[in-house]
């Protein structure tokens, strides 16, 4: 299955239709989830209305982590099998993941101010999330700094794999250390501790963020493949010119 | 630091925190989608132009070679 779709021509043909379908799915899920997140879901008994920030903060955090894990897999494939689509996929996911990590940090800060009374605290969850954002920026900077695409891909893949160590630290930071951040309440052993009236809009918004991130990543992959084609054709033209 | 209220629009600071969060999320996703769409359009047009120029160059070479 993977080898069938890992062909760049097949990928371009498939992604041409998949990108708008995913964008439409994201729009539909946002149209379904936003009224619930902003209006019909109940306020929290302690945090009040500010709990509504959760419906953008948590999906942004989940997919910032999810995209980094996917980048790690793509980087592994790139290093072991040297597949061109794996490089392209990892590189296209990075800006989306970086923006989602930044969104998670900023909305977390906006949520922390009325809840904890502070914009920022150097606790384990917040700091490890900041490290993830910095890793994303480093990954993008590495691609931008090295002209030789093969060398850039190899070094970026190594950096990405080293950065994977941060994912379990982020996930379990609230269990391993005493932090200001609350422990996991959705993805945890023993099932979700969140009320179904809040869980439903959260999952819908998470689905909307996933479809939006996937659609934008496919757009990014398409533009990187076109970029490679354009630069290769321009180079051949320049070489053949008298 | 003051609360991020939107003067004249949203006076309740808690509502303003929510409004800022959703506005930032919308701007981030819309920004990413626009930049992605624009880059895809730009590189697609450039690739098509380069491949067309290459094909035209190849045809001209063939004609030149076949002319006695």
- Per DSSP, the total helix count of chain B is 1
Mean pLDDT of chain B: 80
Give the strand content of chain A.
Answer: under 5%
Q: Indicate the structural class of chain A.
A: mainly alpha
Which H/E pattern describes the elements of chain B?
H
Uncertain runs of chain B:
1-5
Strand segment tally of chain B: 0
Radius of gyration of chain B: 27 Å
The percent range for helix content of chain A is: over 70%
SSE-based structural type of chain B: mainly alpha
- The count of DSSP E runs of length 2 or more, i.e. the number of strands of chain A, is 0
Structure, described:
The complex is a heterodimer of chains A (242) and B (68). Chain A has 242 residues and is mainly α. Chain A has eight helices and no strands. Chain A has one domain (25-182, 193-240). Helix content of chain A is 79%, strand content 0%. In chain A, α3 packs antiparallel against α4 (84-116) and α4 (84-116) runs antiparallel to α8. The termini of chain A are far apart. By secondary structure, chain B is mostly helical. Chain B has a domain at 34-68. Helix content of chain B is 79%, strand content 0%. The radius of gyration of chain B is 27 Å and the shape is rod-shaped. The chains are: A mainly alpha (242), B mainly alpha (68).
Task: State the main characteristics.
heterodimer, A: 242 residues, mainly alpha
Summarize the structure.
Chain A is an all-alpha fold and 242 residues long.
Describe how the helices and strands are arranged.
The complex is a heterodimer of chains A (242) and B (68).
Chain A (H helix, E strand, L loop, with lengths): L1 H4 L2 H33 L13 H28 L2 H33 L7 H22 L3 H15 L2 H11 L19 H45 L2
Chain B lengths: L12 H54 L2
């Amino acid at each position: 299955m993977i080898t069938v779709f890992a062909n760049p021509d097949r990928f371009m043909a498939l992604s041409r239709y998949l990108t708008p379908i995913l964008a439409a799915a994201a729009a539909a899920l946002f149209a379904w989830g936003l009224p619930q997140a902003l209006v019909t879901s109940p306020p929290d008994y302690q945090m009040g209305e500010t709990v509504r920030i959760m419906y953008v903060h948590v999906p942004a955090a989940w997919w910032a982590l999810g995209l980094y894990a996917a980048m790690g897999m793509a980087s592994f494939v790139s290093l072991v099998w040297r597949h061109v689509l794996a490089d392209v996929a990892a590189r296209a996911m990075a800006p989306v993941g970086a923006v989602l990590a930044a969104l998670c940090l900023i909305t977390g800060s906006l949520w922390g101010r009325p809840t904890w009374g502070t914009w920022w605290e150097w606790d384990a969850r917040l700091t490890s999330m900041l490290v993830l954002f910095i890793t994303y920026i480093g990954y993008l900077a590495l691609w931008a700094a090295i002209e030789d695409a093969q060398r850039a891909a190899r070094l970026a893949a190594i950096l990405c794999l080293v950065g994977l160590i941060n994912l379990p630290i982020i996930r379990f930071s609230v269990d391993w250390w005493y932090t200001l951040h609350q422990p996991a309440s959705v993805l945890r052993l023993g099932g979700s501790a969140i009320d179904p009236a809040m869980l439903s809009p959260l999952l819908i918004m998470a689905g909307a963020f996933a479809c939006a991130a996937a659609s934008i990543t496919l757009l990014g992959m398409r533009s990187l493949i076109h970029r490679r084609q354009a630069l290769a054709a321009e180079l051949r033209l320049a070489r053949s010119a008298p | 630091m003051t609360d991020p209220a939107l003067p004249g629009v949203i006076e309740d600071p808690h509502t303003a925190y929510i409004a800022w969060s959703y506005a930032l999320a919308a701007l981030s996703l819309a920004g990413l989608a626009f930049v992605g769409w624009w880059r895809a359009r730009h590189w697609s047009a450039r690739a098509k132009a380069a491949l067309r120029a290459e094909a035209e160059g190849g045809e001209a070479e063939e004609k030149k070679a076949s002319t006695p």
